[in-house]
Structure formats: structure tokens, C-alpha cells
């Protein structure tokens, strides 16, 4: 049995608290088991240089952990003077994943900045960040719609992410906590949308490798988890796929 | 009248939530009005090179703001690749203030790391950090006493901090929110201990200057506020000045 | 038809030139179509701090492109003063992939440094780097065996990598050149070993997403390509899985 | 008695040599006892980005010590690749203090750069820098008036700074040399203008704290010292508060 | 006798392979004995800020060594986060040398970027870089002439470089390999043009000094070597001093 | 005639003020015309890692200019966060030159740190730095002899440096001021010792080139100037080549 008594295909408990910080256009505290991430979405009225003049927007993400989000204190990247490889991988992944479900040509030349700050870590911080960031981004789009900046929510699908892995004792498992993650042979992060399509698959077997059958089982677990995560998103932000600016007559 | 209806000598409402993050030896979320700071205290079993071999401990602090702690998003210092002057001033101040009330020779060759992360800012983040960090540090010392690392809480006084200022409309005021702070002529941060002594006075009049009489009035306000802050600390951590390891017979 | 006339499941032509640079323990120039990467493997007689005292070795990789490996000149990362996110992702991937096929406890406390320097780029530089680096690493192990540092080649499987993708015009294709890569909706890098197991799957659909069926087809193409790449490796380095130090009697 | 035989309320000897370096608009070598600082003021015909379009000027300061200004050689900040916290605090303080006595709206969109380079240190380098920088800045304004860039000296008060402290042996003392500073319990830097108003108070009691009475005594000492420093400034730069461009008829 | 059997006034064997990399406007692999340098020349249609508006072009160079160009692996400068002093000296030297033979006012407001990447080092990498870079630059100018960007090759002289030195055993020698260079007392790099004039002389005697007579002998050797290097250049790029755009009628 | 009325083979006026800063083991203010450099020599009782265990000492130099040493303010390298190429070239040159006249095996495992800080620049700062640094170093050795750290001055020759150049109007000239330097075609820095041998020759003709005859004339001028500079050194530090620890009986 898994350390916290879960079944192999069982997610940890999820809370998505909206309006967590008062200043951002969209703000969420997502809690997945003991993992807690503040996800803030900000709207900036310009795009980075490489996007200028294309009449499209951009979405970019930054990710960080507080020094004591982890059992041992980790040094701040600002004190090191540079951002590590793991952080860069994660923030590129979050940005890419969110862009896959947004019609960038419907938001004007604006940048959506996503800030994911892990205040407490117990495994799965990057996937919790994606799920939380999706909700924060949608809240920011609702605010932009209220302000009259956009006509409708420019999102064509829900998006969520989870981890799966092959553990030497428990076998194939869904939503790994840190204790599981650190003893797992194969580790896979999967991002999917509400159409059941893949957005990202990142599977790694540093200590081991995996076969076709194992890949199929991992994907099955991930799909189950992502379905439940998207249900949790809907209970918080409602049906966004048809939402429009009130009274626009469209 | 002040923007939030307070009297000139009135603090904002204060909450000090202990055990906020599960990993650190001491963890606090301090809320002062709309300002919210996570203060974590970590114990490391060694001291920095310049302190080695002196049979004394050290206390050092780091301070940071989430990008959207503020109304406008601010760039991360990790992304800039260096820590700004304001951050350095604040983290040096926090460390110095905490060291003034601790008997460093009673904690062995250990470092207490203080991490103050502002998740929401509305003025007074450095003084809220000092007050919150003091409580987090005491909690860490209690944990160290439980673990048998130290015999008693090595703290000889409570410590708290607040801001005072001279406002062109409201006059001399206590505990400035951001709106007041950004329109104030003279701004002063005061750190005091529970013996009524000063630990730090940092008064600045960039747009104006101040007289002896104004200085005296600002100090009077600060003393009132700090008295109330120390009362709030006591309600959370109790009477620590006599606390000892249970059963040591000392 | 694809720009260079290949069939959808056809690799570009491959050359693996060994002994390319005289100084490294293992050195290879790998050519995949127009992509050319110098892969050097160096043996250092110590491990990084986090590995010390474990009686195991370590493998780490660095990746770089010459400024004019690309059609437009790109600025050097040494001139920028920092290594970009893409580079970090790739060097972490190369290191992880190589470690998956090596018995680190058979090489002593040594580090194998892998340097992949792209001198000419036409798509697929990271997968060419993995394939070339595997050969360079094996050559370094042969040298270490000659020197009596190790008893046998500590590699339990061949390793190779390729890219696959879904192109709006050509459909599912193997081994993308730059022209294809820059116009592809879904892009996937796959690393496999000679047992037919996955080491890494990194699939991304920034402009699009992909279904279960499409994933299955991409994996089929990758397996075909990797089989051919491993055959090319064998023609250069022979049967390494049973190779031992001559005359050790083991 | 104090190490150099001074009375507790006695400044060290002061020289202010003007025109020290030939290139800057204003240049001063200030000597306070054994402390020597080159203070140069430069006029640049533009303001930093955050000040543009406001029809006002800006004053900014940089501070540095030669490696052997101190008894032990200290590493250059250029060699470290970053500016330390102490340096940043000091340069922010110098800039803030100078801006408090200048009518920034009378200098056009210009920046006054103040460079304080300590060539020999014996305590009180930051306060000597402020006093010297004030004179260098006034000299630069005189040059600007000669050039017809401004109509009159845009300074509404003289400015000077000194340190005071509470020493375990000597008690409350004025203008600490290094030997005193390094053994002092409470250390305070005070900046005042010629109207007898405070511009900055920075009091710190790392090893000790201080009472209301002690604060009052320190302020009394500082006022005496600053009065004498301002007299020294006047003997060098004359009565600047009424100085105007000759023959403008205004 | 010298380690590789050469006479004291004998160059190592030289190959200059043109068109080595497909993307740059000019590309050369120069081989001098065991030293191999990829020299690429790129044309950018703008000049650096300090050259703007002068209707002239600019030539700038960058130099780097692969980590295993050397017998021991050297750390990448991108990983260090800064470019070392030796690299800076070399790239400033290469740029200066090339600019001495080019009519910058004949190339418009364009920058010629020279990238010298040493893939294998055995002494003399900076002088091989200059010789190879000259050829790559001329090839780029030929491409620019083909594109109609310039009317004729804006080069008024050939340019080449070599090293000479005084060895404690062999005496005065030409074109030092690494083994010689590392045991030499006096080391001199000389850059000359085809008119027999000096462009740069950089002579250094860290372990020894040298007399007028020794200087004269070193210069004699260098002249002989540079004559042969320029002959090698001519055999590759032909007579460039009269070359013009075909059919321009000028 | 030259701008300051000098003859072509005439040095500017030279002052070498010893004991300029009180803390360093050796300290000099050297003035060459309007160029002023503080040269400090410090003795550290250890060597850098690459020299350990060789029972020899090391000499290293750092060079910097105050921002307003120049007519236009230049940005500090500490503020840029990195040391420029020109600075690196100069500090490497100074260190190399000094090491050429010192018996490193007579100073024990000690490092001599040379700090050359240009407080006012008018051309020739690097050569003035070498001449001044030589005197400061000798003063530090005298101090070390007084302290009993060494038996005699470990210097086997005097050392000085100057610049020469070919000017389009004045012809071949000695000791260029800034006005001359910035309009000169060929610029050469020459370092020589008191035996009349060359230590360094660095000749550059960016805008022009130079012939054998011109080289000979430049060397003749440099020799004359260096002879006078060494005479000035002798008048300040006396005959050091035979100086020994008093009463050692050796």
C-alpha cells in the first residue's frame, strides 16, 4: 500500500482557492496533498520584442520555490545569481502548455505573465503549477473581459497535468508524492486538454527504462487523473468555453 | 481622516499564524492589514566561514517579494541575476535586529536562516518581516530545545518593528499603509525590544526634513505601536524569557 | 513529398567518424544529413561533491552550438554570461540518457564529461548529440579498459535517439530536418535502448495536440529509426556488451 | 581619553581641497582625520528612464573603496562581479541625502552623478562622502551656472553628515575613527541641513541597544559636529544660498 | 633538433579548407600542424552603436576553444559565466589585425563578425586564427560582391600571423608547437601584411628578457614564415587585390 | 610642435611620491604629466592555488580607473558586473612585467598584490602604472626585509615602461599624452629593464602599419625614455640591487 494509503489510481485531495492574492488579475492557491503553489496571472499591455507587430499575444511563465518549501533549505536562485536548469525546464513547460489552449490572436498584443511560487513542496510541483496556472489565467481573462479588453474567454479547452510513475514496490501509480517520486524508477509528467488529447508527455527512466505496455498503463492512469482535475477546475471556474462579454450581442 | 479610517496612533489589524509551512523549524504567516509575509526560520548545523571556531552561532536573513505582491508586477531578482539595493538593505536590517536580542553564544556553531517572503504587500513589509521573523525564530528555538540542541530559549528580550511618518495631510501617523507611505514626506522605521530600548532607527526625509519635536512625536507613536505588537507576540508564543528545557534541573 | 525526397519513415544519411579530435579519451564527429556534431568524452578521476564517497561514477554532459552553426548568427552564451533554458534542457537530457545504460558502480569515482558541440545545424541536434555521445563514451571506456582503469565496458545496452513529428502536409515523419521541424505541429524526441525500451519520451504540441493513435504511430516510426541508428553504432564500435579487459581471466 | 586624544564632542581635523581632479565639473578631496575620499560630481544631459519627461533632474551616487584603503586588502567589487550590500546602502544614502537639499525642478532633465572613492579609510567614510559630495555638487552647479545651463545654485540648504556612538569606555562620542567604531556598542550616522533639520538618522545597536536619554545625547553631539562641518563648507564654497548667474537681471 | 624534426625556420604543414560550414558567408577550417581552427565570417547589416551614422563598417572577432581542444579538459566560459582575460586579448587582437587591411568605408554600415573556434589545439591558436580569419573574411567579401552589396574586395593587402620564440635548447625558432611554447623563454606573436609591414608585434619575456640582436633574429624568422603563409592564402583565394564586381564597368 | 611644446624625444615631467596611502606595504602616487596613478603593493602570506607547494611566490596586478579619471564619465566595472577586455589586458601586462625582474623563489609562498588605480588620465596610464608599481613593489620588499620576512630585495633589475608612436604630424614621438595618442597611427608600449633588455613590446597599427626602419626609431626613443624613468626611480628608492637585511652577516 502507498505511504498515504491511496489506491494506485487515486489522486491526492485537491483544493483550488481563487482570489488568493489581491493584486493580480488572476490568483489561485492550489493545494495537491501537501504541495501548495501560489499561481498568479498578470496582464501586461505589450508583448516581448520577438512578437511585436503580429497582432497576437504571448503567454510566459516563471516558477520558483521558497527556500523552505523543501525539507532541507535550498539556496535562492537570486542569491546564486542565476536560474538553474530544472527551473528553466519547468517554466518553459508551463508556458508551452498554457499556450496550447489559448487563441493568442484573440488577446491583442498583450502578455500574460504566469507566476507559480511553490510555498510548500511534496512532489508534483510542476504539474500542480500547470493546473493552478490554468485557473489563474482563466480568472485573468474574465477580468480582462470585465474591463472590455477582450470579447470572450480565448480558451478552447480546459487543461490539467499530473504525474505518473512506475514504483519498484507499488507498481504503476498516479500523482506521486515526494516520498514516492524519490524512489521511483520511471517518472512521467503528462499534460492533457479536455478533448482527451496530449499536450506534453515527458517520460524519463533514469534508473530504469520502460516498455510499450508500461507506457500504455501510465497513460491510462494519467487520463483518469486529468479527468478528475478538469472536473475540479470546472467546479471553480464554471463552463468557460462559451463565455462571452455580457451584452455584446455576439 | 486616514484612508482606512484609523486614528493617527492606531496599528492595522495583526494576525500571526504559526506552523504555516510544515518543513521549517519555525514558520509564521504574519498579516498586518493587507500586508502578508511568510517568515520561516531554519537551523543549520554550521556557521559561515568568518564565524568558525568562535563557539558562537549566527543569524542571517533573506527577504524577497513575489512578483505580484505589488499592484504592478515586478521582475524577479533571480531573473535579473542580481539582488537589488533595497533588498540587501532590508535583509541586513532583519538579521541585525534579530541578533540584538539573541545570546549567540548559547546556540552553538549553528546558523539560523530567516526567510521573509512577502506574498502580498501594502506598506510596512520590512517591519512586518522583523516582527514575524522574531516569532518564527522563537518557534525554531523551541524546536531546538525539544530536540535537545539547546537548554533554553537564548532570547533576552522580545523584538518588534513598525513604521511611523509625517504625512502632509494626516500629520504624524503610525503603521503606514502603501497609500500613506507613497505620499509621506518623512518615513521612519523603528525596531525596539521589550525593555523599551531602541535597536534601530532609520529615518529618512527625501522630500522633506524633520525637526527635533517631530522626531520626538514619531518616537512616541512608534513606542505605542511596538508595545501592542509585542503583546500580540506574547499571545502567540507565551512568556519565553524564562523558558527552559524540561527536566534539565537547571 | 518531403523537401529532401525522403519517405516518411526514412532517416537521413548517417556517418560516425571516430578519433576525430586527438586529445579526448573518446571523440566522434557524427553527421546526420547536414547536422554535424563533435562529441567528445573525457574521463576525470573524481566525482562532483554530491556523489563523493559512494564508490560510484557520474556522467554529465554539456552542449553548445557554434554561432554560425545556424543560418542566422546566434550570440555566444559565454558573451551573454549565462546558459539559456534550451541548452540546459538539452544537456540534462543527454546526461540522463547516457546514465540509463551505464553501470555507474563499475567505473569507480570517476566523471565522464560529454561535450557535444554542434558545428553545423539542420534539425535534430539534440538527438544526434545523444547518438554520437553514446559512441564517444564507449570509445572512452575502451581507452579506460586499455589503461587498466576498468575491467569491462560498463554498458548494458546500446542507446540512440531520434525525432519524430506530425507535419501538416507530410503527416507523421521520422528524423526531421530544420525545414520540417520549424513547420511541424507536434514534435517528439525519443531515446531508446537496444532492448527496445524507452529511456525518454518528450512530446510537445505547442501549436497542436495529439491523440492516442497519433502517439502510437510516432512511436512506431521512432522504433524503426532507432533500430537503424543502433545498427550504425554497431558497425563502428562492434559488439560491446560482452567486451572485457584482455587476460583478466574473468 | 580617546585614542587620538580628542574630547568626546570634538571632530577630527577637516580639509576640503577643491579642484582635485581636472576633468569633473566638481571635484573635491575631503580629509577627515586619516579618512580621505575623492568626491567627483559630473553633469549628464539626460535623466534615467523612470524620470523622463518630468522636466526635473536627478541626483545619483556611487561609492567605492580602493582595495588598500583598509588595513587588510579587500577584494574589488568589479572582480567579484557584484556590488555588496554595504556599498549599495551607502550609495543610496548619499543620493537621498543630496536630493533633500536640491530643487530638482531647477536643473532641467539632467543627472548629477556623484562618485565617492575612498582612497584611505579610518572610519566615517560614508559621512565624509556626504559632506565632500555636497561640496563637489555645489562646484558642479557653479560650473553649470558659468556655462549658462542654470540661472542660480539650485540648493536651498547646506548639508553635512557625521557619526556618533556610545563606546563602552569613552561613553557618547562624536566622529568615530576606525578604532573607536570597531569597539562601539551603538553607532549612529546623522545627516542634517543648515536649518538644523534632520535629513537621515540611521542608528544601530547590534551589540547593544540604547535608551531615549542616550538618543538625545547622541543627537546633541551630532548637531555640534554638523555645525562645524557646515562652517568648513562655507569657508570653501562661500554663501551659495543667494548665488545667481551674473547679469541675468533676475 | 625540434620535437617534430623541423628546422628552426620551418613552418608546420598548413591546410586551408574553404566552404567548411555551409551557413556562414565565409567559412574555413585552417590546420597548422595539429592545431585546427574553424573560422567563420558573417555579414550583419548594421554596425554597433558607437559606429552608427559614420557610413563605415566594422569588423569584430570572437574566439573560443572547445573544452577538449586541449590535453586536459578546460571549463567552458559559458559555464563560468564570464570570458577570461586571455580570450579577450585574443579576440581584440584578431579584430584589430583584420581591420588594418580593410577599407571600412567601402563596406557600408555593416559588421563582419569573425568567429574562430579552436577544435584542436597544439600551440599557435591565435596566429592560426588570424590567418584563417583573413581567408574567411575574404570569402565573405566575395559573397557580398556576388550579392551586389559591394563593388570590389575592400582589402588592400593580404594578412597573416605566426609565432616566434627563443627556446633554451633550440634557440630562435619559427611557429612554435605547444611543447615548444610551454618551455620557451621569450614568446612573440607577429602579424604582418603582404607589403612587408608590421601590423602587430607582441613580444613577452616572462621568464627571460631579450636583446636588440635577439629581436632582430625573431623578426627575420617571422618574415620568412609570414611570406609562406601569404603564399598559401593566395593559392586558395587567388589575387584579390584587383578583384571587382563583374560587369560593373568600373 | 607637440601640443605641450615637448621635443619628440622628451618625456613629460615625472613625480613619484612614496608613502602616499598609509595602509599598504608599499604605496606610490606616480604623476606623468597630467596622468596620476595610485600604485599600492600588498603582501599576502599565501599564493593562489595553482602555485601552492612550489616554495615560490607570485605577483599579480589589478588596474582600474575612477569614473571621472577621463573627460567623459565612464561606467564602473563593478556596476557593469564584469571586467572589460582592456582592463584585463593591462592587468595581465603589469603582472607579467613585474615578475620578469623578481626572483620569485626568494619571497617564500607569498603573493604581492599590485593595485594601480588611475585617478586622473591623460594617456599612458598603463606604462605609468608599471613604472609606479615597480617602485611600490620595491617599497613593499623593503618593508618585508624590515619585518625579517626576506633577507634581501629579490629584484635583479630596475623596470620601467613608456609609450612611443608614429604621429601623422609630429612623426615618431616619445611618451604620448591623450591628445597625441588618440590621433596616432602606430602605438607601441615598451617595457625594459635596467640591463637594456626588452621585457614586453606591444606594437599596434590599427589605422596604419609600420616598417623595419620605423620600428628601429621607435625603439630608440623608448630606450631614451626608459633610461630617464629608471633614473627617476633610483632617485626615490636608491640602489636596490645590492640591498640586504642589516646584520644578517650574509
UniProtKB/TrEMBL annotation, chains A, B, C, D, E, F:
<keyword id="KW-0548">Nucleotidyltransferase</keyword>
<keyword id="KW-0694">RNA-binding</keyword>
<dbReference type="Pfam" id="PF03725">
    <property type="entry name" value="RNase_PH_C"/>
</dbReference>
<keyword id="KW-0820">tRNA-binding</keyword>
<comment type="subunit">
    <text>Homohexameric ring arranged as a trimer of dimers.</text>
</comment>
<dbReference type="GO" id="GO:0031125">
    <property type="term" value="P:rRNA 3'-end processing"/>
</dbReference>
<protein>
    <recommendedName>
        <fullName>Ribonuclease PH</fullName>
        <ecNumber>2.7.7.56</ecNumber>
    </recommendedName>
</protein>
<feature type="binding site">
    <location>
        <position position="86"/>
    </location>
    <ligand>
        <name>phosphate</name>
    </ligand>
</feature>
<feature type="domain" description="Exoribonuclease phosphorolytic">
    <location>
        <begin position="10"/>
        <end position="140"/>
    </location>
</feature>
<keyword id="KW-0808">Transferase</keyword>
<dbReference type="GO" id="GO:0000049">
    <property type="term" value="F:tRNA binding"/>
</dbReference>
<comment type="similarity">
    <text>Belongs to the RNase PH family.</text>
</comment>
<dbReference type="InterPro" id="IPR018336">
    <property type="entry name" value="RNase_PH_CS"/>
</dbReference>
<dbReference type="GO" id="GO:0016075">
    <property type="term" value="P:rRNA catabolic process"/>
</dbReference>
<dbReference type="InterPro" id="IPR001247">
    <property type="entry name" value="ExoRNase_PH_dom1"/>
</dbReference>
<comment type="function">
    <text>Phosphorolytic 3'-5' exoribonuclease that plays an important role in tRNA 3'-end maturation. Removes nucleotide residues following the 3'-CCA terminus of tRNAs; can also add nucleotides to the ends of RNA molecules by using nucleoside diphosphates as substrates, but this may not be physiologically important. Probably plays a role in initiation of 16S rRNA degradation (leading to ribosome degradation) during starvation.</text>
</comment>
<dbReference type="GO" id="GO:0008033">
    <property type="term" value="P:tRNA processing"/>
</dbReference>
<feature type="binding site">
    <location>
        <begin position="124"/>
        <end position="126"/>
    </location>
    <ligand>
        <name>phosphate</name>
    </ligand>
</feature>
<dbReference type="GO" id="GO:0009022">
    <property type="term" value="F:tRNA nucleotidyltransferase activity"/>
</dbReference>
<dbReference type="InterPro" id="IPR002381">
    <property type="entry name" value="RNase_PH_bac-type"/>
</dbReference>
<dbReference type="InterPro" id="IPR020568">
    <property type="entry name" value="Ribosomal_Su5_D2-typ_SF"/>
</dbReference>
<dbReference type="Pfam" id="PF01138">
    <property type="entry name" value="RNase_PH"/>
</dbReference>
<keyword id="KW-0819">tRNA processing</keyword>
<dbReference type="InterPro" id="IPR036345">
    <property type="entry name" value="ExoRNase_PH_dom2_sf"/>
</dbReference>
<dbReference type="GO" id="GO:0000175">
    <property type="term" value="F:3'-5'-RNA exonuclease activity"/>
</dbReference>
<dbReference type="InterPro" id="IPR015847">
    <property type="entry name" value="ExoRNase_PH_dom2"/>
</dbReference>
<dbReference type="InterPro" id="IPR027408">
    <property type="entry name" value="PNPase/RNase_PH_dom_sf"/>
</dbReference>
<dbReference type="InterPro" id="IPR050080">
    <property type="entry name" value="RNase_PH"/>
</dbReference>
<keyword id="KW-0698">rRNA processing</keyword>
<feature type="domain" description="Exoribonuclease phosphorolytic">
    <location>
        <begin position="159"/>
        <end position="225"/>
    </location>
</feature>
Amino acid at each position: 500500500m502507498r505511504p498515504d494509503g491511496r489506491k494506485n489510481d487515486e489522486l491526492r485531495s485537491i483544493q483550488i482557492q481563487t482570489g488568493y492574492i489581491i493584486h493580480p488579475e488572476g490568483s489561485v492557491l492550489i493545494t495537491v496533498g501537501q504541495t501548495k503553489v501560489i499561481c498568479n496571472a498578470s496582464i501586461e499591455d505589450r508583448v516581448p520584442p520577438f512578437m511585436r507587430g503580429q497582432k497576437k499575444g504571448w503567454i510566459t511563465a516563471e516558477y520558483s520555490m521558497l527556500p523552505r518549501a523543501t525539507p532541507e533549505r535550498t539556496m535562492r536562485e537570486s542569491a546564486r545569481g542565476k536560474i538553474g536548469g530544472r527551473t528553466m525546464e519547468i517554466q518553459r513547460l508551463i508556458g508551452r502548455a498554457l499556450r496550447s489552449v489559448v487563441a493568442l490572436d484573440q488577446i491583442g498584443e498583450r502578455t500574460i505573465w504566469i507566476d507559480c511560487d511553490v510555498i510548500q513542496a511534496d512532489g508534483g510541483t510542476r504539474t500542480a503549477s500547470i493546473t493552478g496556472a490554468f485557473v489563474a489565467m482563466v480568472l485573468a481573462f474574465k477580468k480582462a473581459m470585465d474591463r472590455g479588453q477582450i470579447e470572450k474567454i480565448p480558451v478552447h479547452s480546459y487543461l490539467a497535468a499530473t504525474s505518473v510513475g512506475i514504483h519498484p514496490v507499488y507498481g504503476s501509480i498516479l500523482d506521486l508524492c515526494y516520498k514516492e517520486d524519490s524512489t521511483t524508477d520511471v517518472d512521467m509528467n503528462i499534460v492533457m486538454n479536455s478533448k482527451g488529447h496530449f499536450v506534453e508527455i515527458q517520460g524519463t527512466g533514469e534508473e530504469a527504462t520502460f516498455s510499450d505496455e508500461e507506457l500504455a498503463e501510465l497513460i491510462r492512469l494519467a487520463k483518469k487523473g486529468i479527468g478528475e482535475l478538469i472536473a475540479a477546475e470546472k467546479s471553480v471556474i464554471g463552463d468557460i468555453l462559451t463565455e462571452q462579454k455580457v451584452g455584446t450581442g455576439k
